[in-house]
Amino acid sequence: MKNSNKKKQKTQLLSNTRRGFVKNTALFTGGAMLLPNLQMNAMVNVLNDKKLKIALVGCGGRGTGAAVQALNADDNVELVAMADAFEDRLKSSLMNITKAMGESKKVKVKEKNQFVGFDAAQKAMDLADVVILATPPGFRPQHFEYAINNGKHVFMEKPVATDVPGVRKVLAAAKKAKENKLNVVVGLQRHYQDNYLAALDHLKKDAIGSIVSGQVYWNSGGVWVRERQPGQTELEYQMRNWYYFNWLCGDHILEQHIHNIDVANWFIGEYPISAQGMGGRQVRTGKDHGEIYDHHFVEFTYPSGAVIASQCRHMPETMSRVSEFFQGTKGTVSTEGDNATLKDWSGKTIFEHRGKDDPNPYQVEHIKLFESIRNGGVIADAENGAKSTMSAIIGRMATYSGKVIKWEEAMQSNLALVPDNLTWDSQAPVQPNADGMYDIPTPGKTTVI
């Protein structure tokens, strides 16, 4: 039995997840600010001491956390611009970032560089060398395309689109990014997490043979709901409550469960060729739950013949599980939290990683991004980000339609969920009926391609 407790070069930050950042900001008030005192070693290549300017696009909890991690990933960076659809979110984010950075002089967002509205993203990106894209994912393709067309290095959250036209746009921009030697890191942080990397290293050494099947999970009690406020337009309500509308979120099979589906793709070394499954709304059925399902179950089939059973659920008081388990021709591999275990078919442990002291992968991905920029390297996560996004999308298509969805056919779809050229005068792309309810996808009836 082996344990990968090697010496760490990077220091783990306080928050264990980017989502947890805003909750933890309460710890920073009253002078108890820990982040500025952290020492990050080997962050700046002495051959390139340019001050890199950062723009944050999307000022929710994950954007706020990502900005702090970016600022702590390199000694010679500063946050110079921020953008969000809503001024209150931008102001709150700026306050939290400033608190988190304490005495640091890296937060330099002037009033004139705080941009609000649908054209805010482009204005902020124009001022930066590196952009953080953390809006609701429906906007990601257009923001990513603009960033790459204008020569920016990018950190962007997952998923990278909510519909197939968006995936194609990201794939095209990803190709251009590689051609222009622009670094792109996607927030599928398991690719930067020690237990997953250790497990993958043993898979490459044929420790359990070829993966033939597996089970991947994101089962939890669900996420926040933001109530409709007096005077809100339908468009503002949906954007504030974005998780429950497919044009903005893509359903939780895409927004959350993409992590586990991506691990399956990564460990198998392929992307699925087809998906079939079922899902629905059983518990989370109110007006405030928009149009998405509260559970999905999908079988993904891969070119090698491997079949992965995928399940995700948002139901309070049920079993919570976020993990992956795969069966190979010679044994098994399981990954959960910071741990990874490989066993042969007799049950003997081949390898075990217990990672309670591992560096925070949410921090590591930013460190790697800036190191690559400094060293003239190219990190090219966008293509995989787009294809894992597409994997989750065909899973959603399968549960919504009740049909077998084939990758190649789905990739030709022109069914766009996200409108072009939105303004505050635009009509929301989804409308409630007279009772305030939204149309729910119905297998056998709903068109998905």
CATH homology-level superfamily of the largest domain: NAD(P)-binding Rossmann-like Domain
Which descriptor suits the 3D outline?
A: globular
The helix content, as a percent range, equals 25-40%
Mind telling me which CATH architecture of the largest domain this is? 3-Layer(aba) Sandwich
**Helix segment tally:** 13
Secondary structure class reads alpha/beta
Residue-averaged pLDDT, rounded? 91
Determine the strand fraction and express it as a percent band. Answer: 15-25%
What's the gist of this structure?
This protein is of the alpha/beta class. Helices cover 30% and strands 20% of the residues. It has helices at 21-24, 61-71, 87-101, 120-125, 140-149, 164-179, 194-204, 234-240, 252-255, 258-268, 361-375, 382-401, 407-410; strands spanning 52-57, 77-84, 114-116, 130-133, 153-156, 184-186, 211-220, 274-280, 295-301, 307-314, 321-328, 331-336, 339-344, 349-354, 405-406.
Could you explain the architecture of this structure?
The chain is an alpha/beta fold. The protein has two domains: 18-190 and 364-381, NAD(P)-binding Rossmann-like Domain (Rossmann fold), CATH 3.40.50; 194-357 and 388-410, Dihydrodipicolinate Reductase, domain 2 (2-Layer Sandwich). Helices cover 30% and strands 20% of the residues. The protein has helices spanning 21-24, 61-71, 87-101, 120-125, 140-149, 164-179, 194-204, 234-240, 252-255, 258-268, 361-375, 382-401, 407-410; strands at 52-57, 77-84, 114-116, 130-133, 153-156, 184-186, 211-220, 274-280, 295-301, 307-314, 321-328, 331-336, 339-344, 349-354, 405-406. The strands form two sheets. A nine-stranded mixed β-sheet has the order 14-13-12-11-7-10-9-8-15. It has a six-stranded parallel β-sheet with strand order 3-2-1-4-5-6, with helices on both faces. Residues 1-47 have low confidence and may be disordered.
